[in-house]
Amino acid sequence: MRLWNGWGNENSELLMELNSGLRNLLQMLVGPATPLGEATLEQVMAKVPASRAPAHPLISTDPEIRVRHARGQSLPDWLAMHSGDVDSFPDAVALPENSEQVRELLRYARDNNIDVIPYGGGTSVVGHINPEISPRPILTIDMSTMNKLLHFDRESQLATFGAGTPGPEVEAQLQKEGYTLGHFPQSWELSTVGGWVASRSSGQQSLHYGRIENMFAGGSIETLAGTLDIPTIPASSAGPDIREMILGSEGRMGIITEVVVRVTKLPEKESFQVVFFPSWEVGLQAARELIQQRIALSMVRLSNPLETTSLLYMGAGDDSSGVVALETALAEKGIGAGKVMMTFGVTGSARHCDMAKEMALDHCTGLGGLADQVGLGDNWAHGRFRAPYLRDPLGSAGYAVDTMETAVDWSTLPQAVENIESAIRNGLADEDEQVHAYTHLSHVYGQGSSIYTTYLFRLGDSYRQAMGRWHKLKAAGANQIVASGGTISHQHGVGRDHRDYLVAEKGELGLAAINSLCQLFDPESQMNPGKLLPDELN
After folding, report:
1. Residue numbers belonging to the annotated binding site
2. Of residues 399, 438, 452, 455, which has the active-site annotation?
3. Which of 232, 265, 298 is the last residue of a domain?
4. What global pTM score does this model have?
5. Hey, which end of the chain has fewer CB within 10 Å, N or C?
């Protein structure tokens, strides 16, 4: 059973408690915090109003299922659920088992003037699945029962999945055939293949496997105007690519029911290596040159000095002696204060992996890098999906953690990182509150890189105060992203939290074009209203 107000499953082995080392570090960085009370599921269920949805055999109006589909996994969602301050719920939830049932549900919605929210894994961190307060009834269509491998074309390396198939099931079903999709976003355990397409997701090893737009070969989308089938053509010059209309559409045009993806054979070998560099500038040079020289890596992740130190001590737990010993050994070799940590991966045949790793290490050591010899790369791989589990123990201790991400060109990246971090770090100066912010590059390209900034702060005396602090920090970081010429989202999508920043990237004419597509498929704006487009177009 999924946690109703947090990340993960109730019995997950990844659920954690805040160790004393991390607690002490937070007290030093942002100050001692006071835990806040926590609403119970029963208290939130008591707020669920009577359903406005007409009866239908495919829907449920049970209060608990409506609560469990009321919010995603953003920090505002977490604050709402834990405080009990939830002001909107779906009127009904449906779990269709096939495309015909989705079509039936859309006919029901059209005939009864009902808003529709597609729901994949519920992992959205920008408000994709949240019901907007509406005079119309709201139906959430949960795709989780459409979770099977439907067809596998081994010769063409194409696999067709029900859109509600979560990451582990995608991999388990493919690996039985000796193949992999290789799409590993941090939400991989819970997010779905349809959600990846709808939000233009990016996996941790996209250098090797590609982003979801490289994997998405075709599929089926049920809309209020009819069924849109996208054939799996290897390449085409026949006008605009219809796939691009659906990628990142966030449910505004319809519900993705089947997804055809390009898969590859399971790699013979895979490994991850950590390298330390004496400075952020040298680390940036190494990351840029590795990708621009086309060394065949599967990922490159570079942590700036603050993140490097933070991660080392956070991972140390109650005993930091190992970190102290590591820092002493690095300092003896000229890598002291200001050091940064790079993690790179190699994936493929044994021969390819060995050659690529050797080339990468030669390049890194030529720039003054020092390769880790104690298995930090293996540690990263083992804990690669743990980060979302940290929010709950931090919250229980009175702290909040959130992230912002973008992508910019290499020429503007150093200043952009500095400006975004500084804006967030000083975002609560009017309250004399400290904010701890640090950054890593998670996906690199020949042209530029993503920027992923994590920030921690105290919740304060109430959930209302915590929400006010989040709004300040979100605006501070987002405004600096726009000022730096970056995208408002590299991998999390737009949802409701980013919609009003979209004009900086798309322009007025571009937004009008996107809106015209939405109106074509959904003239009454019933499909996931309030998401993707700015307020004036919703």
Report:
1. 118-124, 250-256, 391
2. 452
3. 265
4. 0.96
5. N
